[in-house]
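Task card 7
Instruction: Convert sequence to structure tokens.
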Amino acid sequence: MSGTEDKYSRFNDDGYGIRPICTQNATEPQKAVVLKTMSGTLVSYGEKTETLFQLFGTDENAITKSIAWALSRCPDFCRRIVEAVFGSIDMSDEYVVFYQKYSNDNGITDIEITDNANYHIIFEAKKGWKLPSYSQLENYTGRKEFRSVCTRYKKIVSMSECSIEYAENYLPKAIDGIEIMHLSWKDVFNCARKARENSNNAGRKILDELCRYLEGVVGMQNYLSNEVYCVALSDDFVSEGCSLRWSDIVLKYNRYTCPQGRGWPVEPPNYIAFRYKGKLLSVHHIEGYALTQNIKGYISEYPDITEEYPCFVFELGEAVKPFKEVRSGKNMRAIRAWVMFDLLLTCDTVEEAVRKSKERKNQAANIIF
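Output:
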């Protein structure tokens, strides 16, 4: 570097950079000058905007527009989505992504991707725990352009917060010879995260922003969350004539079962806690789960019946025991509640921990950046 030149060194995490000051005749480096980079904060509709995709909004159209853009700009993301649908197949390097493609005969699709040779996929996206109706899917299978296109592989794919296990219970396998399948937003998120490894710098930035966006607008389980779903255990028998008690499922099988939705979680919590005989018994990480309408396949003493709706069967991790007695509280009874992990173990009652957890979340929601 010449005596008249100076260059920035790397910037640290706080946004400060070091610029060494040198002269031709200097025998020792002089003191460095510390520079502070400037940055702004965008607040849109009262909320801090972390990604470009947030400017699209948070409804179904905004989510599909964001995914369509990322698919078009990040080939490895598109490849991983196609592989999630069809497995390993031949793909052309060039492909087309359609957002809200109109057809005279059967309306508008959310997203379509095709390489015009090997595959053609129609995606129908829903926000929340929803699935497309049979009639809506039937409209897509009836599109003349879709049916007549000469590609080897065709599918219609539902995308929403619903898990694949749940969707398999309610979506048709095929309509008029066109296969139907489902991807959860979590599956889409994982494809984007994995695609980052083989993407260029521009692609990585897009995929990083897409992942942050999806985390904020769709109901994915946050594996770093310290919120605990706290429930009461009963010694009642599971059903008349059955010797299995509800408490046995946890104490004997190290599992727990509950309905999906209808007042219960629609996605597995990260942690679950049990109140038993008026006090906190234990907290467990949920190591795995199944979604089923026949619980006996996972708990041998459970009655062999088919439930009307799918139920979770959680596999519990090692028990975390409270270091002191934590009573349930006067008004908890059979109430199910979300509570912060640290507060659950440090408060005197579960009821107090629930109240303080709500206060903490309300305070966090009121922070203005």
